[in-house]
Description:
Elements: H1 2-14, H2 17-27, H3 33-56, H4 58-65, H5 69-89, H6 106-115, H7 118-130, H8 134-156, H9 158-197
Amino acid sequence: MDIFIATFLKMFFIMTPFFVLSVFLTVTTDATAKERKALAIKVTISVIIICLVLLFFGKNIFDIFGITLDAFRIGAGALLFLSAVELIQGNKATAKVGDKDISDLAVVPLAIPVAIGPGTIGILLVMGATFENKSSMLMGSLALISAVLVIGFMLYSSSIIERIIGKQGLLVISKITGLFLAALSAQIIFTGIKNFLGL
Length: 199
């Protein structure tokens, strides 16, 4: 159960839910509530599939490229820290939509790179490689799916959330999320350095 809670919280914050929500609201400004809900479902399914593929095949990727887990921890932590800084400063790259059909936005840019950025990809690969047995892998997968479903529900209810807290409220929450991400990324980097140096 500890693995489930820890993984759920980690993945929820790593995927910067309030930033994802603010981008979702931005790119669906002219959409109806029904169109937003349909898009939210597509985004949620896309994110779950992509995350599970990265989680399950992380070890294979390490083996193919000859990368050690601790080296990847340091790299992924650094990328996550940059994402945190961008969130806090409020200048994380927003998606350019143009005249695309709203349903075409589900995978790119809303799933990748908005919900699953470089930092998230790195953490998923590390997480998949650290699960010791099938039981921990199952709990981790369920926690990951649960975190994505909560974010998906936020997107599904985006019209209601926008009315309640407003865009300014979302901006404030995004900055607070950035602080949590900065602390999490620092911990990941320190763990990688500590293990790499054998301390």
